[in-house]
Structure formats: structure tokens, C-alpha cells
Write a structure and sequence with these properties.
4 strands; alpha/beta; two-stranded parallel sheet; elongated; 56% helix; two-stranded parallel ribbon; 4 helices; 129 residues; single chain
Length: 129
């Protein structure tokens, strides 16, 4: 009985010391920013431009972006984040939308892009449920 009582404070003290060491240890954080110049784009009509921009904003800036997940992670000595700027996202959307690579986004191309975006958002919503 006395040995059991004596082991408990030693174990607790060991856990406290280990936790203090982990909490006070340093962490190296590195971030890589990927950026590129924004491509110029032309649209065949005002409706094509509106369709594209509405789909682009829905894809990369969906409603509820203010919500976030909370995760508790073990402290690691090294963390690397990759940050993609808005120009990179915009250029990727332009390349995806301009299917015939003529530099002009038509109403049909913008509509096809919007359909893809809405399909992806519907799939993502069904996975969350």
C-alpha cells in the first residue's frame, strides 16, 4: 500500500516535467508563398464574365468561410505551410475555364465552369452530412 502511494506522486511529477519540457520547446515554422502575375482575361459577353466570376467566388470563397475546425496537435519541432495567393487560384480557374485556349471565355465555357463548381460544392456538402 505504501509503495502504491509513493509511486503516484513520482509519476505525476514525471508527467508534469515532461509536459513542461514539451510546452517550452521551440518550434521552427516555415511558410512558402506561391505567387504569379495575374493573367489578363477577356470575355465574349458581360453574361460570360458574370457567370465566371460568380462561380469563381463560390469556388474559392464559399459562404461560411468564417467557420473553422479546432484540432489539437502534438508539438513538432518543424512545421511547413504552403500559401497560395489569389492570383494563382485565379489563373488556375482561367486555365480550367478557357477550354479551347483562345484567350476569350465564352458564355458556354463560363457555364461549363459554373456547372463544375456547383457539382463540386454539392459533393462537398453531401460528404459533410
Amino acid at each position: 500500500m505504501i509503495r502504491t502511494i509513493m509511486k503516484t506522486p513520482c509519476l505525476a511529477l514525471t508527467l508534469v516535467v515532461v509536459f513542461a519540457m514539451l510546452a517550452s520547446s521551440g518550434c521552427v515554422t516555415r511558410a512558402t508563398v506561391k505567387d504569379e502575375p495575374r493573367q489578363s482575361v477577356r470575355f465574349a459577353s458581360a453574361q460570360a464574365a458574370q457567370t465566371f466570376y460568380e462561380a469563381y467566388l463560390a469556388m474559392y470563397y464559399p459562404p461560411g468561410v468564417g467557420s473553422f475546425d479546432v484540432a489539437i496537435r502534438a508539438p513538432l519541432p518543424y512545421h511547413h505551410r504552403k500559401i497560395t495567393t489569389d492570383n494563382v487560384l485565379f489563373n488556375a480557374a482561367i486555365r480550367t475555364t478557357d477550354s479551347n485556349s483562345d484567350g476569350i471565355i465564352s458564355k458556354d465555357e463560363a457555364g461549363a465552369y459554373a456547372a463544375k463548381v456547383h457539382q463540386r460544392s454539392a459533393q462537398a456538402a453531401s460528404r459533410k452530412q
